[in-house]
């Protein structure tokens, strides 16, 4: 008679009480709120200084009695984003000023009242949509116009509010240009995330070849297709950083760094396009692999090469995060050597490619590696010299 099996019951985690759930909720909210408050210290101080400075400038220098629109224009133009951007501040400042100017002009022509307010807001919205397609631009113009037409006319005259708006916008733009923002931070973080994803894709392809698992190569293909959104995001961050470095007198010396990062990104974009094609070819190589054929592809050698390439890309990803140019150039040189070492192996014979699909895979890897080497700062001729003769 078979022995009866005795099993130990799994421990059951007690359901948290209602008070514990409430406590956990408020604790989580407090931590996230404290984190947001810490991140907002500098933007809050900047916004406060800009608003009061604009009000004081309009009141003291121009003698305006109640220059509220100077303060509001500065606050709205400066915004409260991650980092202030000159173009955004300029667009918002123009929208605010135009809204006030249109409101002042129509009020002078039509007078003040409810039906005049309807006409002013309607005309302002239509004009804003004609000038710009942005929703924020239209909203800012219409808000300022409705405030102008419904608030009492200042003793200095209606156009004084337009002057106040210009003062606030100019002060916001000046602060944006002079403020020492970490313009490289977001771009560098995006570049590191991009290269981490590329490395993961190459390792996925290496694992797929080693285990002869086409499903893993499909996963790698999906990951490779998802890299484009990361590239576009980094490109947008670099564009904003370049804008800041161009117009800000405190950041112009950093344009060389941004140009180098842009070159690295563009060459990486070309390499990623090749990587997507390579991932599809790996699927074919695995699907067509015949374990009984003595002349089949050596998938283990191919797998080892993809692993080496992933290591080299990892070095490249760490290089772009170097904060100073000399250290970054040294790291890029190390990455170039690692990429070059992997590139010198790219022949069908070295990687054991004995079939048509295997040879095609190896040949597809060659232009990808040339692009990655160019991403380190090499020119095309120097990068191509790493390719072995076939």
Automatic annotation (TrEMBL):
<dbReference type="GO" id="GO:0016020">
    <property type="term" value="C:membrane"/>
</dbReference>
<dbReference type="InterPro" id="IPR049453">
    <property type="entry name" value="Memb_transporter_dom"/>
</dbReference>
<feature type="domain" description="Integral membrane bound transporter">
    <location>
        <begin position="56"/>
        <end position="175"/>
    </location>
</feature>
<feature type="transmembrane region" description="Helical">
    <location>
        <begin position="113"/>
        <end position="130"/>
    </location>
</feature>
<feature type="transmembrane region" description="Helical">
    <location>
        <begin position="135"/>
        <end position="153"/>
    </location>
</feature>
<dbReference type="Pfam" id="PF13515">
    <property type="entry name" value="FUSC_2"/>
</dbReference>
<keyword id="KW-0472">Membrane</keyword>
<keyword id="KW-0812">Transmembrane</keyword>
<protein>
    <submittedName>
        <fullName>FUSC family protein</fullName>
    </submittedName>
</protein>
<feature type="transmembrane region" description="Helical">
    <location>
        <begin position="40"/>
        <end position="62"/>
    </location>
</feature>
<keyword id="KW-1133">Transmembrane helix</keyword>
<feature type="transmembrane region" description="Helical">
    <location>
        <begin position="165"/>
        <end position="183"/>
    </location>
</feature>
């Amino acid at each position: 008679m078979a022995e009866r099996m005795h099993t130990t019951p799994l421990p059951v985690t007690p359901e948290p009480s209602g008070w514990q759930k409430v406590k956990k909720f408020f604790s989580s909210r407090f931590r996230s709120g404290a984190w947001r408050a810490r991140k907002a210290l500098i933007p809050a101080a900047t916004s406060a200084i800009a608003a009061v400075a604009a009000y004081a400038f309009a009141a003291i220098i121009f003698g305006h009695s109640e220059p509220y629109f100077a303060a509001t224009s500065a606050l709205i133009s400066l915004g409260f984003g991650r980092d202030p951007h000159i173009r955004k501040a300029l667009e918002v400042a123009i929208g605010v000023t135009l809204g006030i100017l249109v409101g002042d002009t129509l009020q002078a022509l039509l007078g003040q009242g409810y039906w005049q307010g309807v006409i002013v807001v309607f005309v302002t919205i239509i004009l804003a949509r004609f000038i710009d397609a942005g929703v924020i631009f239209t909203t800012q113009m219409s808000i300022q116009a409705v405030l102008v037409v419904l608030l009492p006319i200042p003793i200095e005259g209606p156009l004084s509010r337009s002057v106040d708006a210009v003062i606030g916008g100019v002060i916001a733009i000046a602060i944006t240009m002079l403020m020492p923002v970490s313009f490289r931070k977001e771009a560098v973080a995006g570049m590191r995330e991009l290269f981490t994803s590329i490395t993961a894709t190459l390792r996925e392809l290496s694992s797929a070849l080693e285990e002869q698992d086409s499903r893993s190569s499909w996963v790698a293909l999906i990951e490779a297709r998802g890299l484009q959104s990361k590239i576009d995001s980094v490109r947008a961050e670099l564009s904003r950083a370049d804008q800041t470095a161009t117009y800000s007198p405190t950041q112009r010396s950093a344009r060389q760094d941004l140009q180098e990062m842009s070159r690295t990104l563009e060459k990486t974009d070309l390499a990623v396009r090749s990587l997507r094609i390579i991932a599809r070819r790996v699927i074919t190589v695995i699907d067509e692999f015949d374990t009984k054929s003595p002349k089949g592809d050596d998938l283990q050698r191919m797998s080892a090469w993809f692993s080496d390439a992933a290591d080299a890309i990892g070095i490249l990803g760490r290089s772009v995060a170097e904060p100073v140019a000399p250290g970054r150039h040294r790291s890029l040189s190390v990455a170039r050597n690692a990429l070059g070492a992997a590139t010198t192996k790219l022949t069908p014979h070295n990687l054991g490619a004995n079939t048509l699909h295997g040879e095609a895979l190896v040949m597809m890897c060659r232009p990808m590696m040339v692009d990655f080497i160019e991403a380190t700062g090499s020119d095309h001729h120097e990068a191509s010299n790493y390719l072995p003769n076939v």
